[in-house]
């Protein structure tokens, strides 16, 4: 999975019928030092992530494992809102203290 | 999923029989600031996207989830025509106003 | 899918038994301006593509959708020989006129 | 598969219900000379890997092959703790001697 | 598929039970001119490839198509030992003559 920051939303009315009701988040990838990377992903969201939150994205067929996403033509899904990221036993990120 | 701009079409008569009737779009990827990237994708289209429109592309087995695409040897599909893209609460793109 | 040019062949006698009879093509990827990229792919061929022809490659599980390729350990397949590529309403490539 | 070094952990309480009980490791990829690459992966762990250990990561649907991971929306899994890596008949890494 | 050269082995005793008996090869990718690329892959081997041999690697779910690999959490498999690679009708590599 990849760590990303919620940066915005993508809205579409003309889409595959199975995507009705899907919310698409614009996510910018984060490197292992907590810096924003110049890469983004658009993913469906099944955990209710908010703007600026750090999340975990699963890509490929993993995105369709939850029953709510089965048979939907999606290849990326937000599967978790991150509480903490620890590197070499020191705290890189903590949702509560928002070190970053 | 990835955001891309419809730039053209790819036509082929000699192809896997299951691809008869498929329309292939040439799509150029767009970065999170709305700029064209030097990367493209060729995708089947199931939403009727037009030239210069911004779309969402799903890749991998996601492309074969709609019943119309099952068992077709495709690995990319246009799944939505984008109305708006919002980043940090400000409008990056709007199909109606075509900021870009 | 990706656009590529047939550059050659890869021959192997010692291979997974299910690959007996498979022809492998060496394909160089092409960018959206029609230039060769420094990236290649080896793909099985089910449309009879010839040297220097432009083709469409499908990758991942898409390569095993045609019944002839089921259960074969391949991750790339030539699925179409390209007749024309049009970008912004102007012809980038035409098999007959071989602009490139 | 890819070789990586365990660098830390990612903790999340708000996640897809099927991920309850999953431990996520932050892994930094390693190149063929044993140097850390500027790329990381977050993976579920089913072999109990510890900090600084070299491991093998499988990505994509491979991550959901063990019965313990079926139907979980994960796209990366630690599948082995590496004992040794040998290149051109000479030892690049050995868990016991920790050449690196 | 990708062309690679066998450079070494990766040994692990602590691994997913289904991987018992699997041999992992360290493979360095080769470009279309026959030069080693700074990218490697670790793959299971089902054709008995030896050090310095050129091989074809399949990645993703393709790696689990042979019955011997079903349900194993692997995402890369050596599927063929290469005899010859021909580019623009001239021989780039021949196992017997080992041009490279």
Automatic annotation (TrEMBL), chains A, B, C, D, E:
InterPro entries (alphabetical): CcmL (IPR046387), EutN_CcmL (IPR004992), EutN_CcmL_sf (IPR036677)
Subcellular location per the Swiss-Prot or TrEMBL entry: Carboxysome
Coiled coil (residue ranges): none
Listed transmembrane segments: none
Keywords, ordered alphabetically: Bacterial microcompartment, Carbon dioxide fixation, Carboxysome, Photosynthesis
SUPFAM superfamilies xref list: EutN/CcmL-like (SSF159133)
Keyword GTP-binding: no
One Pfam family of this chain: EutN_CcmL
Superkingdom of source: Bacteria
Function: Probably forms vertices in the carboxysome, a polyhedral inclusion where RuBisCO (ribulose bisphosphate carboxylase, rbcL-rbcS) is sequestered. Has been modeled to induce curvature upon insertion into an otherwise flat hexagonal molecular layer of CcmK subunits.
Binding partners and assembly: Homopentamer. Interacts with full-length CcmM.
Family designation: Belongs to the CcmL/EutN family. CcmL subfamily.
Domains as described in the record: The tight homopentamer forms a pore with an opening of 4-5 Angstroms in diameter which opens into a wider tunnel at the base of the truncated pyramid. The pore is positively charged.
Protein name: Carboxysome shell vertex protein CcmL
Source organism of the structure: Trichocoleus desertorum GB2-A4
UniProt lineage: Bacteria, Bacillati, Cyanobacteriota, Cyanophyceae, Leptolyngbyales
């Amino acid at each position: 999975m990849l760590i990303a920051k919620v940066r915005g939303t993508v809205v579409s009315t003309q889409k595959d019928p199975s995507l009705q009701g899907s919310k698409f988040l614009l996510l910018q990838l984060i490197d292992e030092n907590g810096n924003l990377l110049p890469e983004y992903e658009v993913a469906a969201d099944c955990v209710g992530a908010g703007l600026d939150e750090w999340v975990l994205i699963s890509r490929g067929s993993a995105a369709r494992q939850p029953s709510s996403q089965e048979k939907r033509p999606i290849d990326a899904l937000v599967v978790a809102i991150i509480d903490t990221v620890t590197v070499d036993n020191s705290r890189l990120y903590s949702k509560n203290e928002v070190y970053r």
